[in-house]
Amino acid sequence: MATPHIRAEKGDIAEKILLPGDPLRAKFISENFLQNSVQFNDIRNMLGFTGIYKGEKVSVMGTGMGVSSIGIYSYELIKFFDVKKLIRVGTCGSYKKDVGLHDIILAQGASTNSNFQSQYELNGTYSAISSFNLLERAANILREKNYKFHVGGVLTSDIFYEPDENSYKKWASLGVLAVEMETYALYCNASRLGAEALSILSVSDQLVTKEAVKTDDREKAFTKMMEVALEI
Ligand SMILES: O=P(O)(O)O[C@H]1O[C@H](CO)[C@@H](O)[C@H]1O
Ligand SMILES: O=c1cc[nH]c(=O)[nH]1
What we know:
By secondary structure, the chain is of the alpha/beta class.
């Protein structure tokens, strides 16, 4: 049963899915990590694949950029395709000097400047948190592999090009490690619909030192987080 955004039947998509923002990163993961991979989605070029990793069925699909886009895909994946474990594998901008380029962040929770939570008509502010089960497993795998990682809060922002380049300092003063654009919505949908979610992020930009990973490397350079996500 296809949805407006995913051309697949129930069973075509595994219970566990990796979700990069970039659909070409999904293709890269499929081609480099999965065996017997079959493409299940092409609508809007939001490429999705299902294959086998170490004997386990696993899927990978792009989400696009921003809360609205991942809000649609994660909702459809959980509600209509019975996906149970959603692991975002994304890039982020570090807010802390000691969180360097290529370091991995496990997003324990997400704050946001988006109004995604207004749909729930709460009389307060919702704290979007990850699945402790997935977080604990990812942390254990990272320790075993001896990969440098950090655990903490991130900001899910609607804005990539902030007019005030110092505004990040206020979030950093509250311990927020980095900025990206999807995790808050992913965690909300997973909590609301009864699935587990975790964002594993690689630092592509350093807002304190102004360093950045080269544009051509962004699709393929972050294989460590992909490996960890697949091993969970
Ligand atoms: O690398 P991805 O997963 O797309 O994540 C980050 O990169 C995009 C901005 O360049 C936003 O989607 C942000 O969240
Ligand atoms: O600075 C950055 C880097 C990646 N993704 C973001 O949203 N911001």
